[in-house]
Design goal:
This protein has about 45 residues and is mainly alpha-helical. About 65% of the residues lie in helices and about 0% in strands. It has three helices and no strands. The longest helix has 13 residues, at about 30-40. The chain is globular.
Length: about 45
């Protein structure tokens, strides 16, 4: 998973950003973007 994080960020940073636009840090983490999104929205 840790290896996927950096690879995904370099692969599609724009897509991750749109998915986790609420949480910029969740961009590099697609899998974590889902749970982070809920926490980010509550923020």
């Amino acid at each position: 998973m840790l290896v996927k994080m950096p690879e995904k960020t370099t692969s599609i940073p724009v897509r991750k950003r749109a998915s986790a636009r609420t949480e910029p840090g969740a961009g590099p983490v697609p899998e974590d973007a889902e749970p982070d999104e809920a926490a980010g929205g509550g923020r």
